[in-house]
Amino acid sequence: MPTFRAPVQDTLFVLNDVLGYERYSNLAGFSDASPDVLEAILAEGAKLAENVMHPLNRVGDMEGCVRNDDGSVTTPKGFKEAFDQYREGGWMGLAVPVEHGGQGLPYTVHSAVGEYMSAANMALMMYPGLTQGAMAAILVHGSDEQKATWLPKMVEGAWTGTMNLTEPHCGTDLGLLRSKAVPNGDGSYRISGQKIFISAGEHDMSDNIIHLVLARIEGAPEGVKGISLFIVPKFKLDASGNPGARNAVSCGSIEEKMGIHGNSTCVMNYDEAEGFLIGEANGGLKAMFTMMNEARLGVGLQGLAVSEIAYQNAVAYAKDRIQGRSLTGPKAPDKKADPIIVHPDIRRKLMTMKAFNEAGRALVLWTAINSDVAHRSEDGAERQAADDHMGLMTPVVKGVLTDKGFEHAVMAQQVFGGHGYIEEHGMSQFVRDARIAMIYEGANGVQALDLVGRKLGLNGGRAVQAFFKEVGEFCEANRGDEQMAPYTKALKKGLNDLQAATMWLVQNGMANPDNAGAASTDYMHLFGLVALGYMWGRMAKTAQDKLATGANGSADFYETKLVTGRYFMERVMPETSAHLARLSTGSATMMALAAEAF
Amino acid sequence: MPTFRAPVQDTLFVLNDVLGYERYSNLAGFSDASPDVLEAILAEGAKLAENVMHPLNRVGDMEGCVRNDDGSVTTPKGFKEAFDQYREGGWMGLAVPVEHGGQGLPYTVHSAVGEYMSAANMALMMYPGLTQGAMAAILVHGSDEQKATWLPKMVEGAWTGTMNLTEPHCGTDLGLLRSKAVPNGDGSYRISGQKIFISAGEHDMSDNIIHLVLARIEGAPEGVKGISLFIVPKFKLDASGNPGARNAVSCGSIEEKMGIHGNSTCVMNYDEAEGFLIGEANGGLKAMFTMMNEARLGVGLQGLAVSEIAYQNAVAYAKDRIQGRSLTGPKAPDKKADPIIVHPDIRRKLMTMKAFNEAGRALVLWTAINSDVAHRSEDGAERQAADDHMGLMTPVVKGVLTDKGFEHAVMAQQVFGGHGYIEEHGMSQFVRDARIAMIYEGANGVQALDLVGRKLGLNGGRAVQAFFKEVGEFCEANRGDEQMAPYTKALKKGLNDLQAATMWLVQNGMANPDNAGAASTDYMHLFGLVALGYMWGRMAKTAQDKLATGANGSADFYETKLVTGRYFMERVMPETSAHLARLSTGSATMMALAAEAF
User: Where in this chain does the record put each Acyl-CoA dehydrogenase/oxidase C-terminal domain (chains A, B) (predicted)?
Assistant: First the structure.
């Protein structure tokens, strides 16, 4: 059975020491989560994740969700009780503004705890996770009345939410969607159509389910310009605002999936269900992106989270399993063989995962802090810069952390040899669960295109230039520091590759957009490496400073950081040149064949 | 539902045109498989794979194998009947010498057909696949009597075979194994112990199961020098050589696995079962490697096979699914959207898989021809060179084709978006099935160590030098050829990287073997890229010659080859520099942390 320990010390290192969490105490909510409180919240979240969520992870995988004949869905044993503890602990509304019943704490804290929860039980955490996305849409685009009607119960966790975008014939290309909305004349609409792949679409964990549904108002323009977003509750509300009559929305079936069995992925049928327009008519895409951006960061976090728990279990196995002898002579001569952690190729796997997880965590938290600044700062320039950063990093966090998260789940499974392929060890579940994160909320190819086709050029490239400047200045500022050389040299080399790739895109992507598409995935990963490398640069700098000024008994911790960061520079960063070389070859060969030639 | 079409034309191109199959007509068996006969055999094998094996692939995944209360195992519906057709078609003994009841045809032909079969139904094909390994051990190490006793029925397929190596506490490190053998005094032994992960260990598809079991004869030395190999039949033979009384070997349970559900992976319990020593006492490791080398090539073939079928289905989906518009303007203006094959990032995936599959097929067939030469040539020098090649390429074929095969199954699944994550489309099965190939018959880390630690230095590096020479001469011979420049330049660059990496290993691996271990996986993949790149060089040369001398109506086929090869050079080969850069950093950082620091 897998185990899990929330990496609290590491989160605190990143927040307090690397990112200077205290510097943000002027932002709303931050003063309520002072470093002491922060530590207490993380410890509490860790306990819930480790002791309540994690023990149900394998149960969820084995039992899955069951659709009953009446269309109701039964979730795995224990899921409802665990979710009860989650909502009673106030985790659902942690970062929701106080005026809507939340605690108004930083989104950063929500993200930090979110990693632990998703690592412990990704499928279970999708129920509250989707609710976060739905709440975000209502918060941003809902009328005051809608906020008052729907949010408090969602913040409580008494009601959960979903996002209904995909239809059988359309996912990425929402312009094709057919679900339709007919006005009732009283401000409400009748929604009809079929949605598929609806996570947490139907289940037994909450008193009501608030579906946010994309549909086309009768007579609306074709394409994405004719899409609107609707609130469609499972149960209509009675006069006092409580769940009353059943709405005409039902779960037609649940999908048999590769993983996340504990989450009910539903085909949802809308048959003139009562719905309420949220935001402007035909402005659904914008509202959808509010949910989506929230969700994309959450999915990136899932990639990191599964990578972390898979890594932890690979480490435990590598220390425990004895097999063969170290190439440099026995390390455990009292035993019949050495633990496999002595073998370089096992180390390579563990170090690769460790170096990624720690930088990935820093990248997520850095982006989360920027989200808080973007939403809460009173300084317009600061807000803009933070918002730029968020927009730029969202596809990188989603695309890179989930691609790598999956890769590392596979790597961790490999450490187990044949035992990794057997379901009872749980490593297969990590791989199967992690796989979806590369697909949903915009497949990673779509993230890459978002980065290259939209985010790069936005506002004349303001966001990307700011990022280059920051990384460049970091390298420059530490240029004279001998001890920092292993980090800054590799980072600078990566940055050069990224800038060259950007220049290539500018020069070749305009003339032929296929060049941009052909470069996109390599560019996104190149970008991710530089962002993660920069996180390592900053973490190394912090660790070095701590060691120089007195490590307070944590010298081992900081020394380990320095080694892990060096590993990242030596073994992971070289990939930047391969990405640059590949993307520079353009689209001509890639696009040369006729479809029939495949 | 997935579909499958055996790539017969491509196999013929590689064998006839690239590798010059006819040149080997002097070898035993080759004259019986003249180009005409070869084509007929491939067509026949393709039919069986497409029409009989493939339709059962998903059935096998869904039903899995069931162990009944009496210890018997029921295979999925239809498996036995399909296997009946396989054995009745004579496929089991295709390459087995005529004197043992086989057809004595080239191993090359067996491999070519094997790809189709494994692509069509990997789990089903493991039953005959393991039998091939068991037969190889008996053929090479068995006494004449043993050959006469066991082989004919196995060649017929009336009996199947297994390989029993792994025990709960030992897989890679067979020196730890505990199963024991006590002499009965009459030449037979009593075998006791527990074996795990035994593929095809118990099932209902054959009249007897011939287990080849590693065990330690009482009083034998510790470690691998005290291991012997035994034949342990499920049913003892009666006086007339037919299955009689049940032997004391039984299936204790079957494993619940991530994939290959159609194959029964058993815990086998030996309780003083009657067994017969094969080969010399304490010489089991050598005999084991005979099975293992055979099996490793077979597993590499599985990697390629799953990559091929996954690719084919991704292509079909990419042509059929409409979503979004081409970045360069609508390509199917009559439809509401373009087929997704117009999108560069989808192309990138398809081209990557296609370019790999075609080179992988060439590499497998080239190695298979070398196997035939090594076993059948009358020229000692030729035999030695071919055997060198086989030894060198075995870990590369196993390690690289299975790592990449899995990666491509994942890539093909990604083309399907959310639909790829749903079991009904079958893409998940390809991923789950392909995953095991990276693990069994020696995890890929062990393959890399075999390459770096054993094969490179063997006979003063004779094998690797011959390979470098051949590739170098190919580049040199085509240096003046303008049209070949895109291929030879990239290949030469890759070869230079590989030679630099080899030099680095020579200089650093001796002094500190951890450097070799730390470099091993990168080195193996670097080696694989050059080997695959060389295959592309030769395929491009052949295609170009064909086009120049009259393509006989196949101009499109050859043009497509040239484009696909160019893609490989542009987009896949750049990885060689990253491998070199990584491995050149050595083991110091990787090994620096104490185990507790993880």
Answer: 282-450
